[in-house]
Amino acid sequence: MLDATAVRQLVFSDLYLGHPTLEDRFCDVPGASANPLRASSALRGDLDLLIGVCKEALAGKSAPERCKVAHDGVDYHMTTMLTAGGQVFVLRRIAGAIRSLAELGIPNAFIPTLLARGLSGLFLVAGAAKSGKTSSACAMVKERLAAHGGVAVTGESLIELPLEGAYGDGVCYQTGTGADASFAEALRRVLGTGAHIILLDEIRDQEAAVAALRASIDGYLLISTMRADSATQAFGKLESLAAERLGAVHARALMADGLAGVLHQQLAAGARVTLKTDLLLLKDAPCARSHVRNGQYELLAPIARQQMAALIGSGAAQRLAQR
């Protein structure tokens, strides 16, 4: 950090940039003595250039915007904040390529299940903010297309990762819906494309939960993300959102019939950051579906442990057989 003269040389989650009186700060810098970490004076020239890029991106726009900006060969998501002291730009680096599930840290034992040909319904990637949910969802789309072909279409308020392209016999088209489009509106647009796989923004509100659950029983594989501290919490949160409009009984029925599974992930700090994952599948799991239908989400945890143990054991047996 002390030697860096360009922002692109740094690893961080978010950069808070441009406040009139407060120093620029980087969040979650590996090995840093403080969090957030104040920008060093050596970065001043590059930070000023980046501020100029952000201001240019907002030129002519009457309200704060969320958009993509590029500087020094790196793409960033930019969100603006109008604080008491003035405007602040919040920047998050966008990955330049889609990494594989294995490269992201998804256990090898889980990957064949995530790529199973017959998977359909709503599949959620859950976790805290900045836990890599979108990266895992995109990797799943990419590898399923490479394995089975087909067409995937995304509906994203802001396109995050470079997923559009051909993968084996499959192809993905990314569509930007704009910040003003709702989840339900984005889903309606994508459903009309004939796609086999649909990737949508995070499920955050009642409308999104209801739209996703209704589409989950129509034969598509719908992949989305959700903020939750565990796989079982994701079920409770999804019901809570959908029940406001559908009622609890109807919401749980749609979940039991339409949910394919939940992959929960958590970034664990240490000497190096690692990914911890839990997987819960509802396909071919009548007991799990029954618990969901009855709202007994606390009973799902032991089923998830049994499923994961079976997957890990099966993977180990296959490796032994190949020796």
Descriptors:
about 325 residues; Beta-Lactamase; 2 domains; eight-stranded mixed sheet; 10 helices; nucleotide-binding; ATP binding
Describe this structure in words.
With 323 residues, this protein is an alpha/beta fold. The protein has two domains: 7-93, Beta-Lactamase (2-Layer Sandwich), CATH 3.30.450; 102-318, Rossmann fold. The protein contains ten helices and 14 strands. It has helices at residues 44-58, 101-104, 111-114, 133-148, 183-191, 206-216, 231-246, 248-258, 286-293, 300-322; strands at 14-17, 25-27, 37-38, 66-71, 74-82, 87-93, 121-127, 150-156, 165-167, 170-176, 197-200, 221-227, 259-268, 274-281. The strands form two sheets. Strands 9-10-8-11-12-7-13-14 form an eight-stranded mixed beta sheet, sandwiched between helices. The protein has a six-stranded antiparallel beta sheet with strand order 3-2-1-6-5-4, covered by helices on one side. Helix 6 (206-216) crosses helix 7 (231-246), helix 7 packs across helix 8 and helix 8 runs antiparallel to helix 9. The longest helix has 23 residues, at 300-322. The mean pLDDT is 90.
CATH fold annotation of the largest domain: Rossmann fold
Q: How many DSSP helices?
A: 10
- Identify the CATH homologous superfamily of the largest domain: P-loop containing nucleotide triphosphate hydrolases
Assembly level = single chain
Report the CATH C-level class of the largest domain. Answer: Alpha Beta
- Element order: H for helix, E for strand: EEEHEEEHHEHEEEHEHEHHEEHH
CATH architecture of the largest domain: 3-Layer(aba) Sandwich
Instruction: Tell me the Rg in angstroms.
Output: 21 Å
Strand content: 25-35%
| Number of separate structural domains | 2
Main pleated-sheet profile: 8 strands, mixed
* Cα-to-Cα separation, first versus last residue: 46 Å
Alpha-beta content class: alpha/beta
Fraction of residues in helices?
25-40%
- The side-by-side strand order for the widest beta sheet comes to 9-10-8-11-12-7-13-14
Count of strand segments: 14
Uncertain regions spanning at least 5 consecutive residues: none
Q: Average pLDDT across residues?
A: 90
Overall geometry comes to: globular
GO cellular component, one term: plasma membrane
Protein name: Bacterial type II secretion system protein E domain-containing protein
Domain Bacterial type II secretion system protein E: 68-269
InterPro entries: P-loop_NTPase (IPR027417), T2SS/T4SS_dom (IPR001482)
